[in-house]
Task: structure prediction
Amino acid sequence: MKRLSLALLSVAVGCAGCNHSPARPMGLLAPPADGQGFQISMQMDAPAGGETWQCLVMNMPNEDVANINRVESVQTAGLHHLDVTALLSTTIDPGRYDCNTLYAQHPELMDQATLYAAQGTAHSQIDLGPGVVASVPPGLPVLFEMHYVNATANDIHVEADVNGYTIDRKDVVTTISGMAVRDRHITIPPMADHTEWTRCVMDHDVDLVLVTTHTHALGRDAHIRLFDGTNVGDEIYVNNMWQAPPLKQFTPTMHIAAGTGFEIDCHYFNDTAAEVDWGYLAKDEMCNLVLVWTPGDANATCKAVATSDGILDP
Result:
C-alpha cells in the first residue's frame, strides 16, 4: 500500500495485490481483500465557520486494468461532496490544491469524466450488477476532491475512504460510461420561486444504468423525465434532498434510443435579498444531471438541445 504525505494533510493510496505495499493504518473503511480491488483515501481539516474545498491530483494505484464492479465509500457525515475524476484531456502535476484556484486555472476540469461521486451521506455504495464494470487503466491520473461546509464553532477533521472492488476479466460482460449534463447559466431572482430546466438527447443508443442529480441549498426538488426529442414524457426520478440526493439504479437497464433523452428540472426557493447564480461554492447554485449507461462507448453523449433560458453551451 502506497502512502503520500503532504504537509500536515495526507492522502493514502492502497492497492490490494500491488507489490511492495506497506500497511496503512486502518481508516474508516477496511480495504478490499488481497487481489479483490484497491482503496484510495483523502483527509483534510475544515476550519470552524468556513468552507473548505480541496483537490488532490494523484495516480490510481492499480498496476493492471482494473475491472471495477462495485464501489463503496465511507466519509465524514455532512460532506457536501466528494468526486474522483479521471484527467483524460488535461495534465496537472500531482499534489494538493485549493479547488477554487485549480478550477479557475483549468476550466476544462468541468468536462473531465467523473469516476465516482458521493454526496451528504456517511456511507455510499454502487453495485453495477453481474459482469458490468468500469474499466480503469493502470496509473490513471485522477483528481480526488472533497468539499465541506463547516457551520459549527469547532474545526472538523474530514476524511473519506473509497474502495473499488474488481472482478476477473473473464467475467466481464460489458463496461459503463456516462456524463454530467450541467446548466452553467443559472440565475435565481431574490425572494422568489424559480425553476431551471435542460433537455438533452443521446447521439448513440445506450442502456441506462443509474441516474442522480445535484443542486445546492436553495434546491427544493429536482426531477428527471424522459424526452423523445420533441415532447417531455414520464418522470423517472425525483430528488427532494439536495444535501443527500438518492441514486436510482435501473434493474434491468432502461434502453434509450439515439435521438431521445431526458429533461432535468431544478426547483429553487431563494429566500435571500440577493440574486444567486451558477457557481462552485455553497453560496452559488447548480443543476446537474448525472447519467451512467452501458455499453462503455466513450463517444456517446447526451447533447443539450434546449434550456429554460434558451442558452446552450457550445
Notes: Residues 1-25 have pLDDT under 50 and may be disordered. The longest strand covers residues 156-166.
